[in-house]
Amino acid sequence: MPTVAKKIIDDVLLLPTDARVSLVEQLLTSLNLPTQPEVDRLWAEEAERRIAQIERRKVKLVSGEKVFLDIRKKYRR
Questions:
Q1: Which residues, 6 or more positions from 42, have their beta carbon under 8 angstroms from its beta carbon?
Q2: DSSP track, 48-67
Q3: Global model pTM greater than 0.70
Q4: 40 and 29 share a domain?
Q5: Quick check: 77 pLDDT over 80?
Q6: Three-state SS for 31?
Q7: Which of 22, 53, 57, 69 has the lowest CB atom count within 10 Å?
Q8: From CA 70, how far away is CA 63, in angstroms rounded?
Q9: 71 and 40 part of one domain
């Protein structure tokens, strides 16, 4: 970790909890991450896309049991 970042972290850890919470909120906001409604919308779109693929028989369904069995076989030592 760069020295400047380490110094900032050391200083921030000395702040009261409410100030650290505020700082974390500001840092997270600065990352421009998708909001929960955006994430929910994207998951709904993905679910609809997958349902359509299943209905059009474009994908082969595999049980979770088989998937995990295959994984265990593949990575068994």
A1: 34
A2: HHHHHHHHTT-S----HHHH
A3: no
A4: no
A5: no
A6: coil
A7: 57
A8: 11
A9: yes
